[in-house]
C-alpha cells in the first residue's frame, strides 16, 4: 500500500473503497453532484487542499468532468493535483450493465492504472511530506467528550459546526478530517475537557 500525504477526492463510496485498498491517504467523496450543493463539504475540501494538497480523481465520463471542473473552479489551484484515469470501455462487476457512456470508473480500474494516474499528476509518492506522526485517535475523541459518552453527539455536532464541517459527518470521517487540519497536541490543548 502506497502512503500519500495529500488527500484525495473521488465521486462515490465505491471509488473510495477501491482506492483505500491501494493507497493510504485521506479520501473524501463528492457523493456525485452533491458537492455542488453542500457548502460545508466544499469548505472542508478547500481547507484540506490549503493544508495538505488535494488530488482530484474522478471518472473519465462526462459527469466526472463536470464534477472535476466545478472543484477546479472552487479550490486553490496551486494546491490541487489532477489525476486522470484512461477511458476504458466496460462495466464494474457490481453493476448489471455499463454506465451511460460505457466506460469504467475509478472503482473499476486496476491498481496499477490508478497509481500511474497519480504519478502522471505529479503527486509525490514518497508519502513523507506533511504526514501526521502523532495523529488524533478515537481515544482522544473520548477524552474530549466527542465520542462514547453522554452528550457526545451534541458536542460533536457543535464542533462540526464550529469547524464548518458537514453536519452529517460520522465520527470516523471527522477524525480523518481533524488529522488533516490539526496536530494532536494542538487539538487536545484546544478541545480537551481537562
Structure notes:
The chain is an alpha/beta fold and 194 residues long. The strands form 2 sheets. The chain has a 4-stranded parallel β-sheet with strand order 4-2-5-6, with helices on both faces. The chain contains 8 helices and 6 strands; from the N terminus they run ββαββαβαβααααα. It is globular. The N and C termini lie far apart (38 Å).
What value does the Rg take, in angstroms? 17 Å
Order the strands across the largest sheet as they lie in space: 4-2-5-6
Q: What composes the largest sheet?
A: 4 strands, parallel
Our measurement of the CA-to-CA distance between the termini, rounded to an integer number of angstroms, reads 38 Å
The proportion of residues forming helix, as a percent range, comes to 40-55%
Estimate what percentage of residues fall within beta strands. Answer: 5-15%
Write the layout of secondary structure elements.
Blueprint: E1 2-3, E2 7-10, H1 13-20, E3 23-24, E4 27-29, H2 39-52, E5 54-56, H3 62-74, E6 80-82, H4 111-120, H5 138-143, H6 152-162, H7 171-181, H8 184-191
Parallel strand pairs: 1-3, 2-4, 2-5, 5-6
Amino acid at each position: 500500500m502506497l502512503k500519500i500525504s495529500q488527500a484525495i477526492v473521488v465521486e462515490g463510496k465505491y471509488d473510495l473503497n477501491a482506492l483505500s485498498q491501494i493507497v493510504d491517504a485521506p479520501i473524501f467523496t463528492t457523493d456525485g453532484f452533491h458537492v455542488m450543493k453542500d457548502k460545508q463539504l466544499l469548505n472542508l475540501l478547500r481547507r484540506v487542499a490549503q493544508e495538505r494538497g488535494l488530488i482530484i480523481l474522478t471518472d473519465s465520463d462526462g459527469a466526472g468532468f463536470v464534477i472535476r471542473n466545478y472543484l477546479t473552479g472552487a479550490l486553490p489551484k496551486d494546491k490541487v493535483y489532477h489525476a486522470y484515469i484512461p477511458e476504458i470501455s466496460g462495466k464494474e462487476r457490481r453493476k448489471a450493465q455499463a454506465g451511460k457512456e460505457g466506460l469504467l470508473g475509478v472503482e473499476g480500474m486496476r491498481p496499477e492504472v490508478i497509481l500511474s494516474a497519480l504519478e502522471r499528476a505529479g503527486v509525490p509518492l514518497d508519502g513523507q511530506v506533511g504526514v501526521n506522526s502523532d495523529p488524533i485517535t478515537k481515544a482522544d475523541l473520548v477524552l474530549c467528550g466527542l465520542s462514547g459518552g453522554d452528550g457526545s453527539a451534541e458536542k460533536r455536532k457543535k464542533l462540526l459546526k464550529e469547524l464548518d464541517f458537514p453536519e452529517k459527518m460520522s465520527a470516523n470521517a471527522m477524525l480523518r478530517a481533524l488529522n488533516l487540519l490539526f496536530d494532536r497536541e494542538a487539538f487536545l490543548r484546544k478541545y480537551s475537557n481537562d
